[in-house]
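Supplementary Note 2. Why include the ligand at all?

Several targets in our set were suspected to adopt different conformations when bound, so apo predictions alone were not considered sufficient. For every target with a known small-molecule partner we therefore ran a joint prediction. The input for magnesium ion is given below.
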Amino acid sequence: IRPRLGWSLPRVFAHRCGGALAPENTLAGLRIAARMGVRAVEFDVMLSADGSPWLMHDERLERTSNGSGRVCETSDATLRVLDAGAYQHPAFLGEPVPSLASAALLCRQLGLVANVEIKPAAGFEVLTGEVVARQVREFWAGTELPLVSSFSEDALLAAREVAPELPLGALYERPPDDWLTRVNRVAALSLHCDAEQLDDSVLSRARANGIPLLCYTVNELGAAEALFRRGVMAVFSDRIDCVRDSSEIFLP
Ligand code: G3P
Ligand code: MG
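The joint prediction is reproduced in token form.
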């Protein structure tokens, strides 16, 4: 059984919450995405030293916060007081690193559907998959579950074990030759890949097997439209001010 989405698939996901219009992976990004009329968001989730999931892309804190060191070696108490906004613009000073719980709550309040990307630090693939799956199930209880994706097959398998009902996405830069076998192994709903690494053989095999293909990171409207014409179902974009499409696809 391949768990399906309980929502129709929007054409555009704001990448890392609010794309380039906000500091990445922040609640400010979610608010801006909603205000821009975007219905879907993608964000990255990594574990702290205490094993709690936080929105964070990099394994280290330096680029997107005023902290330093590895996220997986940083306590919840330290993460809770970091600033994750000012690196992008002084107007975002005071923006916290969100916990998965706070992002889930805000998505629900704003009516956003989500793609939660499990982003394990090296060596924490299984644990991150398990914790994120458990918390996604808890925080989205009683509402439509998000799409949960990862570059890590171990994380996806662990998530599948913990929460068999989760819709999963298998994520690659360039899909390997055996991507369909891998997608089927985790009973993933969708295949996600780098738009620049996409070739027609992947597209035709995805179409023939009824696997929706989603591509990152697409920052020009023309490029997004060209991908949609080729059969790509949705794109992740940093430029939600430019890449707009309000149509949605019902995936049976
Ligand atoms: O999930 C799509 C995209 O976010 C994957 O790349 O590095 O931005 O997480 P990255
Ligand atoms: Mg991501």
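The pocket of magnesium ion (ligand 2) is lined by residues 42, 44, 117 (CB under 6 Å). The chain has a mean pLDDT of 97. Comparable summaries for the other entries are listed in the accompanying table.
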